[in-house]
Write a structure and sequence with these properties.
Number of strands: 5
Mean pLDDT: 88
Structural class: alpha+beta
Order of helices and strands: EHHEEHEE
Radius of gyration: 14 Å
Number of helices: 3
Strand content: 25-35%
Distance between the termini: 15 Å
Low-confidence stretches: none
Helix content: 25-40%
Strand order of the largest sheet: 1-2-3-5-4
Length: 133
Amino acid sequence: MSQSWCRMFPGLAWQVAQARHFVAALLEDEASDLVDDAVLVVGELAANAVRHTRSGWYRGWFLVVIHFRDDLVRVEVVDQGGDEEPQVRSVAKGVEEDGRGLMMIAACAKDWGVKDRPSGARCVWAELVRNGS
């Protein structure tokens, strides 16, 4: 059985923490490692939305969608689009502070991807395994 929840947030940096709290509350009955991974994923995707897309502009927004399926939890962040496609960066120097977010998501997610919307918005998603499935 599939169930979904969503919430829209203002495109402000401090709202990233609110998105993490929203996801943690929705997943409170799940295994702690799943909760940790989901909170990490939404935090990274929301921060990217605010930092790298029009979501961080005046009156911008981002949307967090959580889909519960029998074997997966899918975390989506819909932003207002930007000029560059999200991609895992090569981190050549160990001293760089940015560029590791999508790499961490790729490491903890079963799968992840990007889907552009006709409106110019973009959805970045990650699927996390439930209950050791």
